[in-house]
Design brief:
Shape: globular
Number of strands: 11
Number of helices: 0
Distance between the termini: 39 Å
Largest sheet: 7 strands, mixed
Helix content: under 10%
Order of helices and strands: EEEEEEEEEEE
Radius of gyration: 14 Å
Strand content: over 45%
């Protein structure tokens, strides 16, 4: 089992910045990547960013490239999403995700709301 707890959401004006955190606990040794997804009202949950926990290489959705940066801490149990130049279309619930390389199970955090008024 892996537990994920997000924090850092809120309301910010367009053009502003927010930083999200996701703390992982439990059997984190069974995972290799951690990611962020988001879900806007009435829409599907979409990929935002991913980081490999061992090597630190990252991958981003086209819609956030150049504006969002994902990173991890040295202990490799917490990941961050620095979001700059926020737009109203970034409004969504942001979820942290990881997948067990042993079982293939996906784990999700509880989500944190990010609101950028238009």
């Amino acid at each position: 089992q892996v537990q994920l707890v997000e924090s850092g959401g809120g309301l910010v004006q367009a053009g502003g910045s927010l930083s999200l955190s996701c703390a992982a606990s439990g059997r984190t040794s069974s995972t290799s990547d951690m990611g962020w997804f988001r879900q806007a009202p009435g829409k599907e949950r979409d990929f935002v960013a991913r980081i490999n926990m061992r090597f630190g290489n990252t991958d981003y959705a086209e819609s956030v490239k150049g504006r969002f940066t994902m990173s991890r801490d040295n202990a490799k149990t917490t990941v961050y999403l620095q979001m700059n130049s926020l737009k109203p279309e970034d409004t969504a619930v942001y979820y942290c995700n990881t997948r067990s390389t042993v079982t293939g199970l996906d784990y999700w955090g509880q989500g944190t709301q990010v609101t950028v008024p238009s």
